Amino acid sequence: MAPNRIAAKLSDRGKGVQPALAKGGRLPYFPAPTATDSTSQMTETSNNALDTFPKLLLEHARARPRHPAMREKDYGIWQSWSWAEVAAEVEALACGLAAMGFKRGDRLATIGDNRPRLYWAIAAAQALGGVPVPVYQDAIADEMAFVLDHAEVRFAIAEDQEQVDKLLAIKNRCPLLEAVVYCDARGLRHYPASDLHSYDDVTAQGRAIAAEDPEFFRNEIARGKADDTAIILYTSGTTGRPKGVVLSFDNLLSVARTAIEFEKLGPDEEVLAYLPMAWVGEHIFSYAEAYCAGFCVSCPESGATALMDLRELGPTFLFAPPRIFENILTQVMIRMEDAAWVKRRLFQYFLGVAHRTGPALLEGRAVSWRDRLLYRLGQILVYGPLKNALGLSRVRVAYTGGEAIGPDLFTFYRSLGVNLKQIYGMTEASVFLCIQEDGAVKPDTVGPPVEGVEIKIGEDGEVLFRSPGTFQGYYKNPEATAEAKRSDGWVHTGDAGFFDQDGQLTIVDRARDVGRTTCGALFAPRFIENKLKFFPYIREAVAFGDGKPFVTALINIDLAAVGSWAERNGVVYASYQELAADERVYDLLQGCIEQVNRDFAAEPHLAASQIRRFIVLHKELDADDGELTRTRKLRRNIITERYAPLVEALYSGVATASIETEVTFEDGRKGSMRAELAVRDIVTAPIPTAAPSPILREVEAAGAA
Amino acid sequence: MTVADAAAAPILEVSRIGMSFGGIQALSGVSLSIAPREILAIIGPNGAGKTSLLNVINGFYHPQQGEIRWKGEIRRRPQPYEAARRGIARTFQNVALFRGMTTLDNIMSGRLMRMRRNFLWQAIRIGPAEREELEHRAFVERIIDFLEIQAIRKVPVGQLAYGLQKRVELGRALAMEPELLLLDEPMAGMNVEEKEDMCRFILDVNEEFGTAIALIEHDMGVVMDISGRVAVLDYGRKIADGSPAEVRADPAVIAAYLGLER
User: Fold this and answer.
1) B177 or A190: which carries more pLDDT confidence?
2) Closest residue of chain A to B138, computed from CA coordinates
3) How near does any CA of chain B get to the CA of A407, in Å?
4) Predicted confidence band of residue B2 (pLDDT cuts 50, 70, 90)
5) Phi, psi of A251 (to 5 degrees)
6) Of A13, A331, B184, B232, whose CB neighbour count within 10 A is largest?
C-alpha cells in the first residue's frame, strides 16, 4: 500500500493515526488514544531518551507515521511501508518470537538478501532485548555453522529455501538452534521438519498476542538501555576463523548521529540497500542512519536488478565499493563506443570540459566564466542525461571505500558533479573513522578523522584510533580483544598510514607488509603497486625496497592495452615476450613511472618511495605458477625467490639480466623459459618545496592532453 | 505425490495411438495416462517417437489410430489452440519465442488466450480492457518473480543466453495457467548450473501450482531425480512404464539403451 494513498484516505492528520483504516489490512500500530493515555504516552516518550533503535522506531511511528520507511520492489512495483506500518510489523514479529520462547539476551540470526522482513527481524530482536546476528547470505554451510555455533544462536530467520536448506544441513552441528523462521514459503511446503515456522504464521500469532496485551511491546522496548549489545557482526577475517564484533546501541547511535550531522542527512533521503546485511557499512547506512534520521530505505528486486533499481529510485545517498563504480563506467564507455558519431564526439568533448572544470566547481574553486558556461552546456547535453541514465542525478553524497580507487575513476564521477568521497573505517569502529570533507577531496587520501574520533600513527606506522564507536570486544574471544583494543583505549587497526600536510589520512598498506629502506624511509609495497596498476598499460607490479637502499619494481604489461597501443604506434611484435622487451614499450612504461614518481615527490612521506630502476617481465605472473593467489594477490616470497637474479640486477647497476624460469602449461606439463631482460634507470623527480595538490595536477595534465 | 493423487482419475489418457508418416511407423499402439499433479518423464533413444507423442497430445498431429481422452472426454481431431484452451501448454525442443519482443511481452503473449476483450478493445485500451490488461500484467509479474527473471524483464529475448530463453519459454507456458505442461527437452544444451535451476523450477511449478508435467529428457540423472513415473518408448512402442527404480531395472529398457546381448 503506497503511503500517499493512505494519506489520501486519512483526513485526520497528526492525531491518533490508524493506518488500518485504509484498505490493506495492516494492523493499526497506534490504537485511537483515549484522553488519559495519550498524555501519558507523550510524556513517556519525551522522558525516555532515544537511546536504542526500537525506541527510535516508536518515535518515528509517532512523529511521522505516514512517512515511508521501507520500500521493496516486488512483482515489478515498488511496495512501501510507512513508519507506523513498520512499527506494526516489528511488533507482530517481536510478539510472535516472544511466544516461541525468544528471551532477553537470546541471539537471532538473520540470513538472506536485503529484504524488509530481515530488517524488521533485527528491530524485533532488539525490541525484545535480544541480539541480532546477521550472516552473509553467500556463506557456505561450514562458515554458517561456525557463526551460529559460536554465537549460540537459538533462533534464525532465513529468506528462502536456499538458506533453510543450509540451516537444516548444519543443524546437527548447532545443538542450540531451536527454530527456523522462513520468509518465502516457496518449495518449503512439504518440508517435514517441525522446527520450521513460516514468517506469516509467526506474525499472525504475534498480532493476536499484541491485540491481547498491547503494552507488552512498549514495555519490552522501554527496558532497553544505551549500553546493551545492539548487534554482533562477524568479520569475514582473511586469516583464521571469523570474529564476532560486539557493538552497543551507544556505539552505533553516536557514530550514525555524527555522520548524519556531518553530511546533513534528513528524513527525505533515498537509499538503496543492496550490500550484504552482515556487513557493518550496510548496517550503518541502511539501518542505523535510517532509524536516526528517519529516511526511507529501499530494497532492490533482486541482486541482478540492483543497478536498474538504482536508476528508478534515484538515491540521494549512496555507498558503493570501487568495483561497482568501475563497472558502471565500463558500461558507459562500451555503450558510447556503439553510439553515433555525433554523440560520441559530443561526449568526448564535454568529458574533457568536465575533467577540467567539474572538480573545481564541486570544490568551489575559481573557474573562468567561459568554462562555467561550457560546463553548464555540458550539463544540459551530456552530464545530466548521463547521470540520469546511471541513477546518479539526485546523489548528494556518495561514498566509496574498502580498497584503493583509481584516480581516473574517482575524478570521472567528481567531474560529472557527483559528490563522490572516500571514507575509511572498520567494523571495530562502527565504520566511520575518516570521511573526506566537501570541498577538500583528494583522490588518494581518505580525509580527516570524523568528529569525536582520535587517530594517531603508531611508531611502526600503524594507524591507531579512539572513538565513541569503538567496539565492546570480540564475542567470546578475550585474547583477540586484548590484542586489538589496548588498555589505554587505543585500537590497533593493522593498517599503515600517515597524515599529509592538510591533516588528511592516507592509508598505504597492511601494517605487517610495510617495511623500511636502508635510509629509513617508509616503504609500502602495495601502495606503490596500486599506483602503478592504475595505469591501463600495467597489469601487475612488484615493488622491492624493504632493507634495500632504494625502491625498484618488476612490471607486467597488460597485453590488451599495450597491444592496442602498439598497433596504433606501429610497433611490430610476434609474442608477449617480444612486446614486453621492446624499447618503445620500455619508454611508454618509463613515462608512467615518472608520473608516479612526480606524485610521490610531492608528498614528504613518500618522496623516498620513488622508483629508481625497473624491469619489464617476459612472462605474466600467473596463479598456475604459484606467483599469484587465485584471487590475484601477489605471493611476494615466491616471486622474490624465483626472480632473485632480476632483483639482484635491479640493485647491482648492470644494464641487462638473464633469467630462466619454470612455467606450467595448462595441461600440467612444465617447461622452462629463458630471457635476457633490460634494466631501465629512471631519474627521480625533484622534491618541490611547496607541492600543488594532486587534483590540480590532474586537471593540468588533462588540460594539456 | 500422495496416494489420493495417484488414485485419482487421470487427466489425460491416450490409448492405442498409431501414427505413421508414409512408410515410417512413428507410434504404434501407445497407451499412456497422466494423473493430476504428477511428473511423468518420457524417455527413449533418438527417433523413438517421443516428440511425436507430445505433438499428438497437443493436437499438432492427428493419429491414424487410437483416441485421446482429456478429463474423460474424447476429442476426434483437436487443434493445438483447442488443446491450449483446455489447459495443455508446451515448450519446444528448439526455443520458439518471439525473438524481437521482450521477456515481458513474450510471457504476456501466453495470456492472450485468456483475454476476454477483442483486439479493438485492446487497441483502444480503455475501461474494462485496461483493467483486464492490468490483471494479466500482475499475473505475469508473479511468473517473472517465480522464475527469477526480473533482471531481464525488458530485454528482447533474442539477446538472452540460451538457458534464459528456455526459462522465458517455460514462463510463457505457465502464463496459460495450464493443468498439463508438456516440456520437450527443457534442459537440452544447458550447463550443470542451468540444469539445476531448471529442475528446481519444474519441481516448484508442480508443487506450487499442482500442474501435471510430462517431459522428454535425455539426462538420466535429471529423469531419475525429479520424475514420479517414467515411460520408455522404443521404435514407436512403449516398452516400459513405472517408477524410476522399476524402469531402471527393466531388461527391455536396458536392451533398448545398451543393445541386446546375444
Assistant:
1) B177
2) A75
3) 31
4) very low
5) -55, -55
6) B232
Rounded CA-CA distance B205/A151 in Å is 37
Contact B150 A302 (CB under 8 A): yes
Strand partners, B255: none
B138 touches chain A (CB under 8 A): yes
Q: Do B142 and A74 touch (CB under 8 A)?
A: no
* Helices A141-150 and A161-169: angle between axes, nearest 10 degrees: 70
Supply angle C-alpha A633, A636, A640, rounded to 5: 145
- Helix, strand or coil for residue A417? coil
* Nearest CA distance, B181 vs chain A (angstrom): 19
User: Residue A134: which residues within 8 A CB-CB, separation 6 or more?
Assistant: A109, A110, A111, A118, A122, A231, A233, A276, A277, A278, A283
CB A67 within 8 A of CB A267: yes
User: The pTM is what?
Assistant: 0.82
DSSP conformational letter for A265: -
DSSP letter string over B222-240?
HHHHH-SEEEEEETTEEEE
pLDDT in tens, A139-172: 888 889 999 999 999 999 999 999 999 999 999 8
The DSSP annotation for A216-244 comes to HHHHHHHT--TTSEEEEEEE--SSSS-EE
Choose among A106, A88, A81: nearest CA to A157: A106
Quick check: A323 and A401 in contact, CB under 8 A?
no
Bridge partners of A676? A658
Number of neighbouring beta carbons within 10 Å of residue B144: 22
Distance from CA of B216 to the nearest CA of A (A): 23
Asked if the Cβ–Cβ distance from A75 to B208 is below 8 Å, we say no
User: What is the gyration radius of the CA atoms in chain B, in angstroms?
Assistant: 19
Contacts of A305 in chain B (CB under 8 A): 150-151
Strand order in the sheet with A68-74: A77-82, A68-74, A296-299, A270-272
Report the length, in residues, of chain B: 262
| A309: nearest CA partner in chain B | B151
> Would the ipTM clear 0.95, i.e. be above it?
no
Nearest residue to A251 via CA among A46, A485, A75: A485
At residue A239 the predicted structure's pLDDT band, cuts being 50, 70 and 90, is low
**Highest mean pLDDT range out of A144-158, A609-623, B20-34?**
A144-158
Pair A207, A89: CB distance under 8 Å: no
Rounded to an integer, what distance in angstroms lies between the CA atom of residue A563 and that of residue B227? 53
What stretches of A363-476 show up as alpha helix (H) in DSSP? 369-378, 384-390, 407-415
Does the distance separating the beta carbons of B151 and A302 come in below 8 Å?
yes
Closest CA to A675 of A661, A654, A663: A661
Supply the pLDDT for residue B73. 86
CA gap A169, B13 in Å, rounded: 41
For B53-112, how does the pLDDT look when each residue is reduced to its tens digit (9 = 90+)?
999 998 888 999 998 998 888 877 778 888 888 899 999 888 889 999 999 999 999 988
Residues linked to residue B182 through DSSP beta bridges, in sequence order:
B90, B214
pLDDT tens string A386-422: 999 999 999 999 999 888 888 888 989 999 999 999 9
Contact of A165 with A188, CB cutoff 8 Å? no
Q: Which three cell numbers stand for residue A486?
A: 589496548
Q: Which chain A residues are closer than 8 Å to B197 by Cβ?
A: none
Q: Which of B146, B150, B193 to probe by mutation at the A interface, max A CB count within 10 Å? A: B150
Are the beta carbons of A30 and A59 closer than 8 angstroms?
no
Handedness of CA A401, A403, A404, A406 (dihedral sign): negative
* B239 sits in which H/E element: strand B237-242
Helix/strand/coil (H/E/C) assignment for every residue in A550-592: CEEEEEEECHHHHHHHHHHCCCCCCCHHHHHHCHHHHHHHHHH
Q: Any residues with CB less than 8 A from the CB of A236 and at least 6 apart, and which?
A: A136, A242
What single string gives the DSSP state of each residue in B69-96?
A: EETTEEESS--HHHHHHTTEEEE-SS--
